């Protein structure tokens, strides 16, 4: 079997194992809940609207209206940041990222060892 096909096979196997990992499953569940939460969707739209208004007010030199729009966007962002579902999602995102970082490091170390062994074998 060619190296590329073998590598792809192993990568597919790793992806399958990751998809069954508890941390990844929980992350995907929370991601879906966040995406399907109507309140958070509405909040996101309101934040974007306030940000656009701030840009428009700045463009037309309406400093006070710009400040109010920025304050509203910041207030809405704070509300979103404190939402329990968002907090849980972000925590799980960190967990999933840590897992992937660890796996990446392990794979990198194994590849480096393999390369060193290959180089050593070719010198002998």
UniProtKB/TrEMBL annotation:
InterPro entries: Bact_com_dev_regulator, Biofilm_formation_YmcA, Com_YlbF, YheA/YmcA-like_dom_sf. Signal peptide: none annotated. It holds the Pfam family Com_YlbF. This is Cell fate regulator YmcA, YheA/YmcA/DUF963 family (Controls sporulation, competence, biofilm development). Transmembrane segments: none annotated.
């Amino acid at each position: 079997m060619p190296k590329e096909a073998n590598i792809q096979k192993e990568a597919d196997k790793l992806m399958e194992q990751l998809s069954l990992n508890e941390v990844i499953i929980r992350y995907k569940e929370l991601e879906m809940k966040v995406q399907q939460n109507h309140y958070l969707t509405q909040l996101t739209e309101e934040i974007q609207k306030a940000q656009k208004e701030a840009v428009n007010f700045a463009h037309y030199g309406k400093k006070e209206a710009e400040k109010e729009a920025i304050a509203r966007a910041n207030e809405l962002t704070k509300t979103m940041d404190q939402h329990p579902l968002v907090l849980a999602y972000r925590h799980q995102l960190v967990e999933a990222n840590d897992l992937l970082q660890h796996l990446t490091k392990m794979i990198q170390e194994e590849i480096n060892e393999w390369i060193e062994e290959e180089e050593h074998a070719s010198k002998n």
